[in-house]
């Protein structure tokens, strides 16, 4: 079933059925599988491990270039009198 077909089917639902569908979707989002990371809370320990592995893949020159590239994108805010 294509998304457009699904949307048309949803449009045809009664108010009661729409409420049931809303509850169902809300529950599905709340109880997603652990491998579905769309709205999962941020695990700081896992993030630290990922960043450590990322840093291990760079040498000092790579990190210097990365820092330079991030700083190039920084824009100073305009002063009030400009």
Structure report:
- Helix content is 62%, strand content 0%.
- By secondary structure, the chain is mainly alpha-helical.
- The longest helix is centred in the first third of the chain and has 16 residues, at 15-30.
Explain the layout of strands and helices.
Layout: H1 3-11, H2 15-30, H3 44-56, H4 60-72
Descriptive terms for the model:
single chain, 82 residues, elongated, 4 helices, 2 domains, mainly alpha, 62% helix
Instruction: Give me the Rg, rounded.
Output: 24 Å
Secondary-structure content class? mainly alpha
- End-to-end distance, in Å? 56 Å
Helical amount among residues, as a percent range? 55-70%
| Uncertain regions spanning at least 5 consecutive residues | none
Number of separate domains: 2
Q: What's the helix count? A: 4
**Shape estimate:** elongated
Describe the biggest sheet? none
> What is the residue-mean pLDDT, rounded to a whole number?
78
Q: How large a portion of the residues is in β-strands, by DSSP E?
A: under 5%
**Helix and strand run:** HHHH
Number of strands: 0
Short description:
With 82 residues, the protein is mostly helical. 62% of the residues lie in helices and 0% in strands.
């Amino acid at each position: 079933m294509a998304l457009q077909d699904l949307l048309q089917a949803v449009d045809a639902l009664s108010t009661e059925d729409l409420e049931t569908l809303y509850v169902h979707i809300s529950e599905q989002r709340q109880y997603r599988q652990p491998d579905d990371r769309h709205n999962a809370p941020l695990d700081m320990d896992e993030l630290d491990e990922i960043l450590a592995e990322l840093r291990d893949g760079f040498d000092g020159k790579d990190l210097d270039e990365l820092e330079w590239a991030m700083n190039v994108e920084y824009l100073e805010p305009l002063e009030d009198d400009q």
